[in-house]
Every structure is written in C-alpha cells, then in structure tokens.
Design goal:
Blueprint lengths: L7 E6 L17 H14 L5 E6 L10 E5 L3 E4 L4 H11 L14
Parallel strand pairs: 1-2
Antiparallel strand pairs: 1-3, 3-4
Helix pairs in contact: 1-2
The structure holds FE2/S2 (inorganic) cluster.
FE2/S2 (inorganic) cluster binds next to loops.
Length: 106
C-alpha cells in the first residue's frame, strides 16, 4: 500500500528506558504487546487504510501507554485490555475517537 492511500496513521510508543532512570516508560507497561494486539484486531476488522507503527518516546511517558493518531493528532492512553483495543479499533475503522481513552494532556 502506498502512503497516499492511508487514511490514518497510529503510532504507539514502545520506548524502553533503563529501569534505573527516574522516568517511567511505555515498554514496561507492555506496549509492544499491545501494539501487536491492536494490529491484529485492526486486521481482523478488515481495516486496510490505517497504518499502525511503533514509535520512540512520545514524551508523555507518565500517561502511557502513549498513542497518537494522525492526521488528526488524537492522543490516547491505552491500557492493555481488550475493551480499550476494541474501542480504538472502532475509531480506526472510521468511528468517533474513543473518548474514554483520550490522553489527559496539559
Ligand atoms: S516512553 Fe512512551 S511516551 Fe515516553
């Protein structure tokens, strides 16, 4: 698929930080596994015009697992649970953003 045909692009932070560091990270909240589940769920839902990729730190570490969906710039905090995944997939499929998982941002 060429990039021009993508409708949405979701980035999920999978940054791993040294446990000795003061700041937490998304990887310790199982973000890589969550991204894989989200990809699988999107594929199962037949979504072909959305790309889901891992990203480095999105600088919202304390609110992670961090996800941003472009081009609209919708930010999510996604817990690693099935309800969250299915709500985000509804958004990616063309529905409204999943309000209950919008990231609280300053
Ligand atoms: S480690 Fe995920 S937003 Fe910083």
């Amino acid at each position: 698929m060429t990039q021009e045909k993508l409708r949405l692009h979701a980035f999920i932070c999978t940054n791993q930080r040294d446990p000795e560091k003061a700041r937490e990270c998304c990887a310790e909240k199982n973000s890589l596994n969550l991204m894989r589940k989200l990809k699988r769920a999107a594929r199962t839902a037949g979504i072909t015009d959305v790309r889901i990729n891992k990203s480095g730190c999105l600088d919202n570490c304390e609110q992670g697992i961090s996800c941003v969906v472009y081009p609209d710039g919708i930010w999510y905090t996604i817990p690693d649970d099935e309800n969250a995944i299915s709500r985000i997939v509804e958004h990616l499929a063309g529905g409204e953003p999943a309000e209950e998982y919008l990231m609280a941002r300053e």
